[in-house]
Amino acid sequence: DLNLEVRHSTMELESAGALDLTLQHSKLETGAIRSIRSEMQHSTISIEKVQQLLDINANHSEVEIDQVSKGFSSISFDGNHSYIGMDLESGAAANVRANLVHGKLHYMESQINMSFVNVENQRSEYKGTIGSNPQAEVRIEGDFTDCSISID
Of 54, 35, 43, 45, which Cα lies nearest the Cα of 8? Predict the structure, then answer.
């Protein structure tokens, strides 16, 4: 496990098992990570691959995930004036829940089976599934936060 506190810096990691991270006014680029937990402020994270878990609390920040492994367990993102974009590996199965105020969930209808979508008064709520027999969870919460989910 790796615990990092990064301020006003740019950092590159080749890979990590479990990463517990505090970022302020910083940028992180990393290869494969088994799990990441992070508190972010005014920062950017670019991740090549999340294998199991992502749990991020973000304020004025951006997260880009090139690939989430199909065997992942949980993606959780709480954002304020933030953005998260992720590409799930083909074959992934998950329940998707998003509650956004002044934000939007971007997805292809052919890739996510939404059972509930309610958009009114700047509030958006989404519930759906990806794949069959989902065991994993994708949960997005945010104010002035957007999310993009695609499946490769």
Answer: 43
Strand partners, 30: 13, 47
Q: Write the pLDDT tens digit of every residue in 112-135.
A: 999 999 999 999 999 999 999 999
124, exposed or middle or buried, with CB in 10 Å at 0-12, 13-18, 19+?
Answer: buried
The rounded distance, in Å, linking the Cα atoms of 86 and 69 is 11
Please choose, from the candidates 53, 50, 21, the residue with its C-alpha nearest in 3D space to the C-alpha of residue 38: 21
The C-alpha R_g of the chain, in whole angstroms, comes to 15
- What six digits make up the tokens of 5? 């506190």
pTM over cut 0.90:
yes
3-state SS class at 121: coil
**Quick one: tokens of 91?**
């074959």
Q: Which two tokens stand for residue 31?
A: 């290869």
CA pair distance 65, 42, nearest whole angstrom: 18
Torsion of CA 5, 43, 15, 141, to 10 degrees: 100
